[in-house]
Amino acid sequence: MSAAARSGRVRMWDRLAASDPGLLRLTAGLRTVTAIALTLAVLAVLRVPVSQLVAGAIAAMVATFAIREKQWGPQAVTLALGLPMALASVTLGALLNRWAVVGDVFFVVLIFCAVYGRRFGDRGTALGLIGFQVYFLSLFVGATPAGLPALYGVIGVAFVCSAVARFVLLPQTPAGTLDRLRRAFRARLAQLLATQVELLDAGPDDVEKVLEELRTGTARLHETALMIQGRLEDGTSDPAVARLLQRRIADAEIAAERLGLLLLTARSAERTDTLTLHLPGAPLPSGGELPVRDEATAALRRDLKALRVLMLRPAGEASGTALAQVRNRLLGYREEENLPEAAPAVQDVFRGLGEAARAAMGLRVALEGPQDESDDSPATARSREELDAEDAAIEISEESEPQEAEPAGLKRPTTRAAVQVAVGSSLAIAGGELLSSQRWYWAVLTCWIVFINTASTGEILVKGYRRLLGTVLGVVAGIGLAGLVGHHTWTAFALVLVFIFVMFYTAPLSYTLMSFFVTAMLGLLYTLLNTYSTSVLVLRIEETALGAACGVIAAALVLPVHTDRRTNDLLVAALNRLAEVTRGAVDQLSGGTGGDLVEQARELDQALADLRAATQPLTHPITPLRSRRDTARYVVALLETCAYHGRSLAATAELLPTHPSIAADPRLRGACGRIVHNIEAIAAHVADPRSAEEIETGPSIASMLEPGSLRTPRYGRVTDRVLRHLQRLDEAVSGLARPLGVAGGPAQPRR
Q1: How many whole angstroms separate alpha carbon 689 and alpha carbon 583?
Q2: 510 pLDDT above the threshold of 60
Q3: What are phi and psi of 47, to 5 degrees?
Q4: What per-residue confidence (pLDDT) applies to 217?
Q5: For a tag site, which of 154, 489, 563, 614 has the least CB within 10 Å?
Q6: Is 697 in a helix, a strand, or coil?
Q7: How far is CA 436 from the centre of its chain?
Q8: Which of 137-151, 500-514, 596-610 has the highest mean pLDDT?
Q9: Which keywords fit this entry according to its UniProt record (predicted)?
């Protein structure tokens, strides 16, 4: 293969890895399609009727996508337990279908148990899903007691083919998934660097568009970092390796985000607020003026591109004198004497570039092992020594965090959801049978689905709306496809496989798209079962609308969890995590011990991700409350700003034991007291609006320390950076108080 072809293949693979981190969506789609195709092939050899082909396809799909464990052993156990569950479910479906009332009551009980089973983890969720979906299958194909032996064989074939697809043809190990996620992180980091180059060159008419791309790239990088952190425990055999990877990923993410902020500042007349990167629609300060075209900016453009090349270069090609010279030049910017003559803001960008190069080198060493050191410059050698010292200092804490007590009874989320979905399904059954005595189960299916992965009334409303929209569009497509396919059985099955793959590939991106492909696929299945008609697909729209409405009604009236309450709870959790990270980081920077700061920062990121997901009903375009939507976006953006500064403080504090250039400064503890107090005051006010807690206002963080500390930092630029993060964090926390209605007062004396 030529070098050009190999390079093109690598670039294509990097783009795919960046768009689908870990290739999780691609693998899920291919595995499901493979399981269905194998099932259809085996059943075709056995010459079973079309109705059993449809049943086998559905059973294979359920057996494949229901299992979520990451390790092979638990997956095999769940799949083995799922087969008797499926056989029992289809048996009851065939037997009870003749007695409407008894069958309906059992269906509701089954739904309750399936949702309640989520409290037992991935296995309970999978078995509940298999039980529900196979019961639905029996209704869809009209199973009868006489046809049960044949259905047993079909379902058995489907489960065996699912196992072959999972464990033989498309195996996915935790270590392999983690490796692909790491490649995706590197690819997304390279994409972000490319956007930063565009920002440097963007004219006044293009700068807002590039700024939005910068926000998107930063958010996607953070998303991939969270995905990696969630799979480190399963994907690595050594806890020390997992902790090292977690640290290096965090370092690279922070360095890339900081580099973007410094570039924004270089383009403006004043220092850019971190909020610019996190608030959609926030303009670039000072109109985004073009930088002066001089040697320094030309060198900056060159070095940004060089860093991107180094990040993307495969391990086997990441050596050579030319590449070593580039790496040495970039790392040299960490030394003051190597900075080019330029404006202070531009010099800051070069410093940020040096830190990003150091983070990139640390990431490459962590991912690929020791590198060739023969061409190292003194600056590169010092960076390697720092990284080695950090690696040696990493220790795994054996202390277990106290587990929060889980709510009991109806307050437990799984119990509440089970009761809600049971009530909603009862309403859906009653209303669905009024619409159609044959297709009523579509309303129940929709009611069930809108409760999956939702926790508040607002989330259920938005999910129901998206499913209805996708169903309407899918019906239109299904009508056209049914006319084109006619009675060509295998053409229809081929299209079904295509739709199933696209359904799984698009599911995490757009629930509307997923619903569209599901409905279009069902139109083809109805054609295969000779039950297709335009009225049937229109009835599906009606049943879908009814099921979504029943779900919303049940969520709103039965043990409701209002969106405001859920977002407030998650906001308090995020604020508490922010206070922990800030307190721990500053305590360590002041000479104390801050605990496991990397893990605390991870918990903060996860709490913020949960909050961001919960606010989607408030920020959705269809929401009529525009001011409320803007407030929710502003609060989340401010919290993301706070989280960035908190992560940066934690990362700097982690360097303290190994870097001679960073020394503890006891003055920082007093400066941090006001910030932590204000975070806790805001959390108290959100938890209880009657709280009398007030935030404290006063002089800047720098002025609270010794006079002149910013002009002549006692410990150099690192202390200066810590003060900047604290100052920005103080400003962002005070900014949070305004939209949340927390009163302020003068600062109190603190020790």
Answers
A1: 25
A2: yes
A3: 60, 50
A4: 92
A5: 489
A6: strand
A7: 40
A8: 137-151
A9: Cell membrane, Membrane, Transmembrane, Transmembrane helix
Pick the residue with more confidence: 561 or 120?
Answer: 120
Find the mean pLDDT for residues 76-95: 95
Assess contact for 596 and 634: CB atoms under 8 A: no
Q: Tell which wins on pLDDT, 474 or 154.
A: 154
Q: Which residues contact 558 (CB under 8 A, 6 or more apart)?
A: 419, 420, 423, 424
The pair of three-digit structure tokens given for residue 265, joined into one six-digit string:
């500042």
pLDDT of residue 673: 83
Main-chain dihedrals φ then ψ at residue 96, nearest 5 degrees? -90, -10
d(CA 7, CA 115): 48
Is the pLDDT at 30 greater than 90? The verdict is yes
User: DSSP string covering 595-648, please?
Assistant: --HHHHHHHHHHHHHHHHHHTHHHHSTT-S-HHHHHHHHHHHHHHHHHHHHHHH
Q: Which residues contact 264 (CB under 8 A, 6 or more apart)?
A: 199, 211, 272, 276, 277, 284, 285
Q: Which residue is it, tokens 């008609």? A: 533
Give the pLDDT of residue 702: 61
Query: Would you say 685 and 741 are in contact if contact means Cβ atoms under 8 Å apart?
Result: yes
Percent of the chain scoring above 90 in pLDDT: 29
> CA-CA-CA-CA torsion for 206, 211, 216, 217, nearest 10 degrees?
100
The confidence score (pLDDT) of residue 406 equals 54
Widest Cα–Cα separation across the chain: 90
Give the number of other Cβ atoms within 10 Å of residue 572's Cβ: 19
Greater pLDDT, 287 or 466: 466
Report the SS3 class of residue 535.
Answer: helix
Q: Is 337 helix (H, G, I), strand (E, B) or coil?
A: helix
pLDDT tens-place string over residues 181-226 = 888 898 899 899 999 999 888 887 888 889 899 999 998 998 898 8
DSSP letters, 250-277, are: HHHHHHHHHHHHHHHHHTSSSPPPTHHH
Query: What distance in Å separates the CA atoms of residue 34 and residue 165, rounded to the nearest whole number?
Result: 6
The answer for residues whose C-beta is within 8 angstroms of residue 541's C-beta and 6 or more apart is: 468, 471, 472, 475
Nearest-CA neighbor of 25 among 501, 513, 609? Answer: 501
- Judged by DSSP in three states, 696 sits in strand
Does residue 397 surpass a pLDDT of 50?
Answer: no
Q: Is 113 exposed, middle or buried (0-12, 13-18, 19+ CB in 10 A)?
A: middle
Report d(CA 507, CA 466) in Å as an integer.
Answer: 12
Q: Count other C-beta atoms under 10 Å from residue 338's C-beta.
A: 14
Asked whether residue 717 carries a pLDDT value surpassing 60, the answer given is: no
**Helices marked H in 66-173 — which ranges?**
72-96, 100-116, 121-140, 148-164
Look at the block and give the residue holding tokens 């020594």.
Answer: 385
> Which DSSP symbol is given to 454?
-
Q: Is the pLDDT of residue 705 over 60?
A: no
pLDDT band per the 50, 70, 90 thresholds, residue 94: very high
Q: What is the DSSP string of 701-726?
A: HHHHSSTTTTTS-TT-HHHHHHHHHH
Residues carrying CATH 1.20.58.220, the chain: 563-705+715-740
Per-residue pLDDT of 316-373, as tens digits, reads: 454 556 778 888 889 888 888 888 888 888 888 898 898 898 888 888 887 777 776 7
Residue 163's SS3 state is helix
d(CA 165, CA 527): 27
H or E segment and range at residue 219: helix 207-235
Distance, CA of 679 to CA of 572 (rounded, Å): 10
- For position 400, what pLDDT does the model report? 41
Q: Which helix (H) or strand (E) segment is 745 a member of?
A: strand 744-746
Contact in structure between 654 and 597 (CB atoms under 8 Å)? yes
Dihedral, CA atoms, 490, 491, 495, 500, nearest 10 degrees?
0
The count of other CB atoms within 10 Å of the CB of residue 558 is: 15
- Cα–Cα dist 307/381, whole Å: 18
